[in-house]
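DM from R.C. (forwarded with permission)

"hey, sorry to bug you on a friday — could you get me a structure for this? deadline for the figure draft is monday and I only need the backbone to look sensible"
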Amino acid sequence: MKRRFALWFSRTQPVDRRDYALSGFGLMAFKYLTDAVLIYLVLGILWTPLEYLSPLLTTRTKLEHLILPLAVWTLPFLWIGVSMTTRRALDAGFSAWTGLLFFVPIINYMFAIFLCAVPSKAADPNPAPQNAGEGRLFVDALPAAAAGVGFGVAMTLFSVYVVGAYNASLFLGTPFAMGFAAAYLFNRNGGHGIGPSVVVAHTCVLLAGGILLVFSLEGAICLLMAYIPATALSALGALLGVTVAGAPRLRPSQAMLLLASLPFLTGAEAVQRELPLREVSTSLTIDASPREIWPHVIEFAELAEPSRWVFDLGIAYPMRARIEGRGVGAVRYCEFSTGAFVEPITAWEEPHRLAFDVARQPEPMHEWSPYQTVNAPHLLEGIVSKRGEFRLIDLGDGRTRLEGSTWYVLDMAPGFYWALWSDALIHSIHGRVLDHIAAEVEAG
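My reply, with the result:
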């Protein structure tokens, strides 16, 4: 058994077809049995081998409550799979980069069966320098990328589910530290240069995002928004990692201080954070008096299907509004595609001003995901609407400027970056409502 563990977690030990087949099929059966037992004991669901092998993520939607523990349990098997596939490919005389086929659905099964059959290639007494360099490059890149991905996923879980914060340490510090760790480990046994190091760092970002998507911890849209700064920051981290790896007197423990300090910074940032109240205001001029517009403000009929592309991405959009009662104390219900905003009226100044608090709000979007729901707290806690207001300003020439404002709290850092998205989202929602009110008024 000791030999097996050494084989599974080695970076350089060759893997012949016998060891590859025994380890591959044995570990697959073991993981299936442990997963199936856990799922049956907790959820009472019989997880069939066909569902286990299916590349369709939609077959896993019924496991949402066990996604997190199953994700953690999968990580060592993920490492063993890609590591042994890469070393088996090298042993068979193929390029080390073919080991990446391990991540391609359906093809990975066929490639694994092929590697179980193809014999080892006889050692070449005069190997080509290019192949030797390629093999070393990939062998060094694999554990470096695994370390970067592991750190990124761990920091995400710690920040979101332990600290309960989407802060700057997560969105700025984590991708930088991922790039730094990966580049440092990639170059510590010999310089591979800045270009390959940046590629390894970028691969870490992509793989970490893929893991969060596969295990329903995030959706595709939010990952795409986070990907933009993460790519640049991981590249900067990689540059520092290459530099530090070349420092002759620097110990690995000293180099890793950056990684060790990040969880503490995350906790400190969560304690000290202050969330300002943000206002987004949108206006539209309508050819009618305030008194003609007022009835369409307090409630309005069914809106047409949205035509703006932003709502095709799953962003929640208003569909209709109704009100129960009149005056202060009445309750307005603005129904969105994801649910209803419950809005107790706090100011009723007919026909010039309607103000309300937000007592309850739905999710701001349906995330793109292979699952029915995404286990991301920010969908309910990231953007929290506090109050809203409509103002009808008589322009004195038979026209009225209709203004809609929303005050909200953005619980995601860095605020300046995420506010670009949240402000644009709220402006789009305002615009849809104001355009509909104008169309109703002008149509009589």
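R.C.: lifesaver. Residues 2-272 form one domain.
me: no worries. The beta strands are 277-286, 318-324, 331-336, 339-349, 353-357, 383-394, 400-410.
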